[in-house]
Write a structure and sequence with these properties.
The complex is a heterodimer of chains A (272) and B (291). Chain A has helices at 43-50, 92-97, 112-124, 140-152, 170-187, 221-224, 227-234, 256-264; strands spanning 5-14, 17-27, 32-36, 58-63, 75-78, 158-161, 190-194, 207-212, 215-219, 239-243, 246-251, 254-255. Chain A has 272 residues and is of the alpha/beta class. Chain A has two domains: 5-74 and 156-264, P-loop containing nucleotide triphosphate hydrolases (Rossmann fold); 87-155. In chain B, 77% of the residues lie in helices and 0% in strands. Chain B is built from 13 helices and no strands. The radius of gyration of chain B is 21 Å and the shape is globular. The chains are: A alpha/beta (272), B mainly alpha (291). At the A-B interface, α4 and α5 of A face α7 and α8 of B.
Chain lengths: 272, 291
């Protein structure tokens, strides 16, 4: 079977830096992949490359056997939100509607079918009440649910979700994971789900893609989340502690994932 | 009885005002500029690029005085300079148009050049006030036709890029991934803003373009949450403020631009004070964590 996403000795360069260097792996259709790694390891960069926004400087990248194409309608994308315009009093429905064929010229139009499709998708993530509320009054978690709904519109074959759990409370994190898991299983959608915490995804993901130090390792949790592999990816001595079905990644007694998470809110590592 | 006499009184007042051709011309010109400013300004406010709009008008001042120096009509100098500046701003980067310091320095420089051109062409100095603060009462039929044509071009341009413009304004990351040419869209938008600024400057002058391009759309955004209702409200508020301003000026003998500026500010602050329209359903029972 043609892999959903395949990298062959690919190098992804942003500016003068090789974010991923000489990386090869293949993701099968229908897999739920948890994408993990420290900040700046290339999670966002990888997704941008799959979207066709960043061609590999060396090697090959194939999406369902083809070179990535900008504007590919078979890919649903939830970008990490960085541009939140202050005081934006546009309501949820208009926000999502803007993305429906938003690349076409002319005046915006919203057909009855479009409206029904948005409504169904909002209902799927339990965010129907957001359609009529202005963005400026939504919490970070509500905006995040709106973005998740938007990524699901049009029944994409491949879902790229960049930190979809950020600013969701524990209950909505579970709901979001469950919704994505169901779509993955029922529709056979391939999912790349980046996150800071492995433990929430452990029961859901098929394989984990761990990025770090310019490298990428794809495999089952038991193969990847090990002291030797992670020490290589973090470039420092890492211990893996397993307790009660949970896995903790520690460096010198500190929980790496939580350290990373604290850093993330103020940081800008969006690559242009 | 009293209501009848008020109505007759109003009729007299209004017929009184429209007996003068310059008032008719002023209403037509202000109406065209207000509709264009309200619609274009709505996106300027949405994209948080109001300062860029302000800078464009100052650059236009240098263009208008420069055109006077070489014997061209000020309007064409204004259009030429704002259009060129808008396109350059858009091309340099989609982000530079939001950089306050760079824009502030460029607009001060432009005003400086405007002053230099005036210095060398002293005969033009009497027109400087008109350029800076507008002179809608001097608008003639020819100017109305020019403004109308310019308005049609501006709105046609806006209509052509509106869909990707909304997408790119609300969600630039996703718009880029879906194939929207971000730089082209933001450049085309700033060119449209430049044309709207040129129109607006004919009515209220380069220093007061905010009164028509920012005040009404900002008020409209406070009062509405839908895109289409917001656009309609922005145009209507701009129109109402421009025409009320003219009426007020006619009967008070205050400068028109002053009256429109006051109404624009009043409209904005009234919208701020108005209770926000909320459509929040009764408690969903979900507690959100702080972002």
């Amino acid at each position: 079977m043609t892999p959903a996403v395949a990298l062959e000795r690919a190098t992804l360069r942003v500016g003068a830096r090789d974010v991923l260097k000489d990386v090869s792996f293949a993701i099968e259709p229908g897999e739920f992949i948890g994408v993990l790694g420290p900040n700046g390891a290339g999670k966002t960069t990888l997704m941008r490359a799959i979207l066709g926004l960043l061609p590999p400087s060396e090697g090959h990248l194939r999406v369902f056997g083809r070179a990535p194409q900008r504007g590919d309608s078979t890919i649903g994308y939830l970008p990490q939100v960085r541009t939140v315009l202050p005081d934006l009093r546009v309501h949820g429905l208009d926000f999502i509607a803007s993305s429906l064929s938003g690349e076409r010229w002319g005046l915006p139009r919203l057909s009855r079918a479009d409206r029904a499709m948005i409504d169904d998708t909002l209902a799927l993530v339990g965010a129907r009440d957001l359609a009529r509320r202005p963005l400026s009054e939504m919490s970070g978690g509500e905006r995040q649910r709106l973005l998740l709904a938007q990524a699901l519109i049009g029944k994409p074959q491949l879902l790229l979700l960049d930190e979809p759990l950020i600013s969701l409370d524990a209950r909505h994190q579970e709901v979001a994971i469950e919704v994505v898991r169901r779509i993955c299983r029922e529709r056979g959608t391939t999912v790349l789900f980046s996150a800071h915490e492995l433990n929430q995804l452990i029961g859901t993901l098929d394989r984990v893609l761990y990025l770090g130090n310019g490298q990428a390792v794809l495999g089952a949790v038991a193969e990847v989340i090990t002291a030797p592999v992670l020490s290589r990816l973090y470039g420092t001595d890492i211990h893996v502690v397993r307790a009660d079905g949970h896995v903790f990644v520690m460096a010198r007694g500190r929980d790496m994932e939580h350290v990373e998470h604290q850093h993330d809110h103020g940081h800008e590592h969006h690559h242009h | 009885m009293s209501s009848i006499s008020t109505i007759t009184g109003m009729n007299i007042i209004i017929t009184d005002m429209f007996q003068y051709e310059f008032m008719n011309n002023a209403f037509a010109a202000a109406g065209i500029a207000a509709a264009v400013s309200g619609l274009v300004g709505y996106f300027l406010v949405m994209r948080a690029q109001t300062f860029a709009g302000h800078a464009l008008s100052h650059i236009g001042f240098a263009g208008a005085t420069g055109a006077g120096l070489i014997g061209l009509a000020p309007l064409w100098g204004l259009i030429g300079f704002t259009l060129a500046a808008g396109i350059v701003m858009g091309l340099l980067s989609e982000r530079i148009s939001n950089r306050d310091v760079a824009i502030g320095i460029v607009l001060a420089l432009a005003l400086g050049f405007g002053l230099l051109f005036l210095h060398y062409y002293t005969a033009f100095a009497s027109q400087a006030t008109a350029l800076l603060f507008g002179n809608v009462l001097a608008v003639d039929r020819g100017m109305i036709a020019t403004l109308g044509l310019l308005g049609i071009v501006t709105l046609a341009g806006l209509a052509a890029i509106m869909r990707p413009l909304i997408f790119a304004s609300l969600q630039p990351e996703l718009a880029e991934a879906k194939g929207v040419p971000l730089r082209f869209v933001s450049t085309a938008f700033l060119a449209i803003v430049a044309l709207a600024v040129s129109e607006c400057a004919q009515i209220v002058g380069v220093l007061l373009v905010f009164t028509m391009m920012v005040g009404p759309p900002a008020a409209a955004q406070r009062l509405t949450t839908g895109l289409s209702s917001g656009l309609a409200a922005a145009a209507l508020i701009a129109l109402a403020e421009a025409w009320l301003g003219l009426t007020l000026a006619f009967y008070s003998d205050w400068p028109v631009s002053f009256c429109i500026a006051v109404l624009s500010a009043l409209g904005y602050f009234a919208a701020l004070a108005a209770p926000l329209r909320r459509a929040r359903p009764a408690g969903t029972g979900v507690i959100e964590s702080a972002p």
